[in-house]
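Batch queue: ligand-bound targets. Current item pairs a single chain with flavin-adenine dinucleotide. No template structures supplied; prediction is de novo from sequence plus SMILES. Inputs echoed for audit trail.
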Amino acid sequence: MGRLAQTDGLTDVQREILATVREFVDKEIIPVATELEHRDEYPTRIVEGLKELGLFGLMIPEEYGGLGESLLTYALCVEEIARGWMSVSGIINTHFIVAYMLKQHGTQEQREHFLPRMATGEVRGAFSMSEPGLGSDVSAITSKGVREGDEYVLNGQKMWLTNGGSSTLVAVLCRTDEGHPEGTAPHKSMTTFLIEKEPGFGQVKPGLTIPGKIEKMGYKGVDTTELIMDGLRVPADRVLGGTTGRGFYQMMDGVEVGRVNVAARGCGVAQRAFELGVSYAQQRHTFGKAIAQHQAIQFKLAEMGTKVEAAHAMMVNAARKKDSGQRNDLEAGMAKYLASEYCKEVVEDAFRIHGGYGFSKEYEIERLYREAPMLLIGEGTAEIQKMIIGRRLLEEYRIQG
Ligand SMILES: Cc1cc2nc3c(=O)[nH]c(=O)nc-3n(C[C@H](O)[C@H](O)[C@H](O)COP(=O)(O)OP(=O)(O)OC[C@H]3O[C@@H](n4cnc5c(N)ncnc54)[C@H](O)[C@@H]3O)c2cc1C
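Prediction returned. Tokens below.
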């Protein structure tokens, strides 16, 4: 392990978990990641290994069979995994968000029903807000649930579900008007439905279709899909928390921890890019010396290392803030924004260091170059992060009078 991105003050348990995950990443993920990614193949063996390590239940409380670890432990594990292959961290991320939402907002029955099987990875979570016509503007959601007796009938189309095909439980945000008169603010008339389904594609249950994988430039291996609800019937007791009208807040709570997670992914990918760059720079010779001895390349390495270090520190700070029970939307927004921008820059510098070989599919940096941009978009774009950060700063620094 190198000197960068160390975390002070970890417990023995945290250090042990991280060492195990790092070993798994080095042995089981890095050697196969690029090949699987080029084939866009789902990493089934890796996922089985993650189950054995207990990673699907890392933050699920012990009473439900999980390891009951903190957001910091989780984020540091994600950082390690993304260092190996970002797509694998995507497989865990939506699962983690849904488990977190159940833990925070679910009814007792919902927690008991889902969390033990989520802890083992038997039930796997996906979450769905985005639609073909919206992503940033969640308040514009058009998918709708209408109550009929003991059920809700859901209609609408969803877009960009990470793990849409492989998951068996999807938390879907829909509009529900019941109990909310016309004119109610959009975010107060939204409800999260917990939809159980079979994994796979096509019609996975009556009224629910997962059409197929969306072809992507990167972030391959993990399935990203649409979801079509056409008269889908969901029992009323599968409204998250049992009460309609709370979905927007529940989802935003989930996305907030998800942002720390995306920041951690940015840190992991940037670390890997740095490792690849610093190694290649010492092997490639031009004009009679290793390119690492040219000051221009040394400066690049200096900038890259500084960015890796800064992003890691902000990500750790955001996770610790949440773990201490404090509001962390400002820190999570800043960490996500900075880590994803720095990740893209560090990856680009590592790519440049590789010269023409960076453009060859034989070199790992080619894969990282196609993966880094996803972090600029997922869990809220840079513009949306800046809106959150700006508003919060104005709240904190409001002048009197
Ligand atoms: C690979 C992948 C996986 C994803 N997985 C999931 C998932 O699992 N679940 C899910 O629900 N969604 C998922 N998403 C969707 C993702 O959250 C959205 O793509 C993202 O929120 C941006 O929304 P959009 O694509 O509709 O862009 P838009 O909202 O249309 O934005 C387009 C551009 O306009 C800018 N913009 C928008 N509004 C403003 C404003 N007010 N001020 C300034 N600029 C603005 C944006 O920053 C962006 O640059 C995924 C997306 C991708 C690419």
